[in-house]
């Protein structure tokens, strides 16, 4: 497992404080025991982190399959660079393929729609996500590997699929994502002896106090920090949109000529 906090399993807590999430669910479906499963992901990871810090561990393991969930943290930063993302993802997929590993990355959904961002910020984030997905599409096509499309995944935009923070999948969301990964893997010829169940079980339930606590302690500060990175970009989108409307506006009809005696 390579990637960020979703790959870590955030949003699907177990009693006692550990995280489960998509990785262990897929591993169980494939019949992989704890000794055969490696999660290299960590919270806050960006595409470059996967290339420089996580990939070497995955290559050393020489796994049959590697799930790659990364890119959203890049879209939220002021130094967002699609060319650098493409180079890093290309390197990751090429190295995994060369090691005999089948990588399965994801293309992303409109997360501003889930998080209910204000209009300008949502449009700014959506523009970034579209660019990220363009990178994923190009690199995936180049290497001929399967990919999970979160925007087309049933349940993606349902509130029950998201945890209290609306940033990470809930247990149901992780199960939906794990089912999507195993469907794609099965289509690529990988045996899936135990299909992922969508029935929630074994996870810890969040209380109303958990929801309020997260909003106050983490939700508002997170939105403020990320908003500061996205606001200048969002302002640029609004300005360009306004200028475009001005250029496209029809010229006023000329004033009628007045006959003189």
UniProtKB/TrEMBL annotation:
CDD domains: SGNH_hydrolase_like_1 (cd01832). Residues 2-176 form the SGNH hydrolase-type esterase domain. The keyword Iron-sulfur does not apply. Keywords: Hydrolase. It holds the Pfam family Lipase_GDSL_2. GO terms for molecular function: hydrolase activity. The keyword Hydrolase applies. Gene3D superfamilies: SGNH hydrolase (3.40.50.1110). It comes from the Bacteria. Its EC number is 3.1.-.-. InterPro entries: Ester_Hydrolysis_Enzymes, SGNH_hydro, SGNH_hydro_sf. PANTHER family: SGNH HYDROLASE-TYPE ESTERASE DOMAIN-CONTAINING PROTEIN, THIOESTERASE 1/PROTEASE 1/LYSOPHOSPHOLIPASE L1. This is SGNH/GDSL hydrolase family protein. The lineage of its organism: Bacteria, Bacillati, Actinomycetota, Actinomycetes, Pseudonocardiales.
């Amino acid at each position: 497992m390579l990637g960020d906090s979703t790959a870590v399993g955030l949003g699907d807590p177990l009693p006692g404080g550990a995280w489960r999430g998509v990785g262990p669910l897929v591993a169980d479906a494939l019949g992989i025991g704890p000794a055969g499963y490696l999660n290299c992901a960590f919270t806050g990871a960006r595409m470059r982190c996967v290339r420089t810090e996580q990939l070497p561990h995955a290559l050393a393991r020489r796994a049959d399959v590697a799930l790659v969930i990364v890119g959203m943290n890049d879209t939220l930063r002021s130094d967002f660079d699609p060319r650098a993302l493409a180079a890093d993802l290309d390197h990751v997929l090429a190295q995994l393929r060369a090691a005999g590993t089948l990588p399965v990355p994801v293309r992303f959904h409109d997360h501003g729609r889930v998080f209910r961002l204000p209009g300008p910020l949502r449009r700014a984030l959506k523009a970034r996500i579209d660019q990220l997905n363009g990178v994923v599409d190009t690199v995936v096509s180049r290497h001929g590997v399967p990919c999970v499309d979160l925007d087309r995944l049933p349940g993606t935009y349902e509130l029950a699929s998201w945890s209290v923070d609306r940033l990470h999948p809930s247990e149901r969301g992780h199960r939906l994502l794990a089912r999507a990964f195993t469907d794609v893997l099965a289509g690529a010829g990988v045996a899936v002896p135990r299909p992922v169940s969508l029935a929630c079980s074994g996870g810890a339930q969040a209380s109303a106090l958990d929801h309020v606590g997260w909003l106050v302690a983490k939700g508002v500060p997170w939105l403020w920090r990320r908003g500061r990175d996205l606001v200048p970009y969002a302002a640029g989108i609004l300005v360009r949109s306004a200028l475009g409307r001005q250029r496209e506006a029809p010229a006023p009809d000329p004033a009628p000529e007045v006959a003189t005696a």
